Amino acid sequence: xxxxxxxxxxxxxxxxxxxxxxxxxxxxxxxxxxxxxxxxxxxxxxxxxxxxxxxxxxxxxxxxxxxxxxxxxxxxxxxxxxxxxxxxxxxxxxxxxxxxxxxxxxxxxxxxxxxxxxxxxxxxxxxxxxxxxxxxxxxxxxxxxxxxxxxxxxxxxxxxxxxxxxxxxxxxxxxxxxxxxxxxxxxxxxxxxxxxxxxxxxxxxxxxxxxxxxxxxxxxxxxxxxxxxxxxxxxxxxxxxxxxxxxxxxxxxxxxxxxxxxxxxxxxxxxxxxxxxxxxxxxxxxxxxxxxxxxxx
Length: 297
Known about the structure:
The protein is of the alpha+beta class. 44% of the residues lie in helices and 21% in strands. Among the domains are: 30-119; 212-293, no CATH class.
């Protein structure tokens, strides 16, 4: 056999070994350490930590034990473990030890590069610069690892597309996975009279617990029907129908949304209004605020 032919066979064999090990030439291997704590029920708080160009990065969440292949409740008590988290974006292989419900060890991420094309076919370009984090180590493998830890799926992508929100990108898909935003929630918020909400608005809605029921209650109070930021303020400062009704009972019937927020910020309730109106029957919201902070007129 000729020398060049032998070298070629050796080269092909080496490539096959790389592929069988889950490594493709040109990819950056992602490895690191994991820590875990068993929770009530069939839950495990699992955190992944690895070195990166910006120091150390962490990803963590609560996982169902059923999602972790090779691990059950008994394994989280004591002993050596080897388990895998299999996601569409790739597989995280873990090895380590548990002692009294707490575990630690090392992990290795095997990315599924086909997931990149699958998502692009659905209109979510994982290689787009639109959602770069500004770091030099923001590789496609990093993005696949993030997608795997968050369980970003094709089903989620299809679900968001079904809500007919324009201009969604893969960064929006990541946010949706983090904040539990699905097509049903998007459609419900659109139907409340806010058809042009962005993903950032939807994230705010989830953070501040604004849903269709909250919008309905706010509309019944006569506020927040046109300005989404009013809804955010009402949620932050806990403006409720009960609070408004108490103010109206004390004679404050012509309030704007800004007035209501001011009253909440300065902790002016019905009792304070009652005392102030006993001496100044026509006192305004601005004057109530000045009185509260000790400004003399």
